[in-house]
Amino acid sequence: MKILITGGSGFIGSNFVRFALESRSDTSLVNLDALTYSGNPESLRDIEERFPERYRFVHGDIRDVDQMTSLIAEADIVIHMAAESHVDRSIIDGRPFIETNVLGTQCLLDALRQADPDNNKRLVHVSTDEVYGDLPLDRPDLLFTETTPYSPSSPYSASKASSDHLVRAAIHTFGINASITNCSNNFGPYQFPEKVIPLFVTNLLQGMKVPLYGDGRNVRDWLHVIDHCEAVLLVAEQGKAGETYNIGGNNERSNLELTHAILDIMGHDESMIEYVEDRKGHDRRYAIDASKIQRDLGWEPSRSAWPEALEATCNWYRDNTAWWQRIRSGEYRQYYEQQYARKQDGV
User: Fold this and answer.
1) CA torsion sign, 327 to 41 to 336 to 342?
2) CA–CA separation, 245 vs 251, rounded Å?
3) How confident is the model over 195-249, as pLDDT tens digits?
4) SS3 for 284?
5) Residue 33: what pLDDT?
6) How far apart are CA 309 and CA 188, in angstroms?
7) Handedness of CA 259, 260, 264, 269 (dihedral sign)
8) What residues have CB less than 8 Å from 73, skipping those under 6 apart?
């Protein structure tokens, strides 16, 4: 099985590369990544060394239709994860989100049609539960299902909703062999330290307070990244064309509850909380109904349960200080630049 993944040097992407190669001995994988600020090739340095015959990195942009067409022609399965994904950044400047998430997805679909006119190749478009908007805090019985109407609240979620619609349109109009997945909040190793869990853990490791938005009552369903990767690979292998699958952790926690849990694990008290002005348009609650993927494909989360999964994640950042310090300093960019220079020189 030959897999092409877009955005494989990001948080979820790098964990997917690792999971797929370690769990499928007959699989080879090409990782196309533009290496924008959150793409970190150091996250896969050991994979390059362990699987030199089955893993290849390609520096490229999903908006390059010719390059995408060539790469898709060599693949059996395409996992589309390349995306701008940070809500705060989208509020400051939404244009990169439109360029990557919307235009980039359309370019990938164009390339897929050119490389695979008979629709034999499989595409999994990886999306988010944020496309559904939010749920009221006082209705714990309400969950996002695959038929929940879209109601995005941020430039980020609006761009992902747009990309989902483009994939659905291509399924309907051109008959492409594609499925869509919508996941809840991921956590685990190799997450860029602007996101809440690694941000809080690394702040505490440096003796800094943790910034908590608003009243902290916002609720998220937390999904371990390897549970997510397992589900995406299962959808690629066994999912039905045209179907959407919600992927959740069955693990709802308020941001305040999350914050106190991290403080307890890291040996701090609530004096380390700094309440900050709430994010504009901050969604109150996300909650996934993942019964469809459990019923149809037999998947359910097995790694997301707290407190064990959260403690293991906090310990990963504690044990891998050099990894996140190189991100904060900007040194992580040097690894790819040095490797690329060596290849250019024929070394």
Assistant:
1) positive
2) 17
3) 999 999 999 999 999 999 999 999 999 999 999 999 999 999 999 999 999 999 9
4) coil
5) 95
6) 8
7) positive
8) 115, 116
Domain locations along the chain: 2-193+222-254+286-303
Residue written as tokens 């685990």?
A: 188
Chain segment 78-132, per-residue pLDDT in tens: 999 999 877 888 889 989 999 999 999 999 999 999 999 999 999 999 999 999 9
pTM to 2 decimal places: 0.94
Of 36, 31, 161, nearest to 105 by C-alpha is 161
3-class DSSP state of 209: coil
CATH superfamily of 2-193+222-254+286-303: NAD(P)-binding Rossmann-like Domain (3.40.50.720)
Q: Give the distance between the most distant pair of CA atoms in the chain.
A: 62
Q: Tell me which residues are annotated as active site.
A: 129-130, 156
**Residues 64, 82: contact at Cβ < 8 Å?**
no
280 pLDDT band, cuts 50/70/90, is confident
Handedness of CA 119, 108, 283, 211 (dihedral sign): positive
Angle 76-78-82 from CA coordinates, rounded to 5°: 160
Please write the tens of the pLDDT for every residue from 244-254: 999 999 999 99
In sequence order, the 6+-apart residues with CB closer than 8 A to the CB of 298 are: none
- Positive or negative, the CA dihedral 258, 272, 282, 317 is negative
Give the chain's length: 347
Alpha carbon separation from 290 to 30, 120, 125, 225, 273 (Å, rounded): 29, 28, 17, 15, 33
341 pLDDT exceeds 60? Answer: no
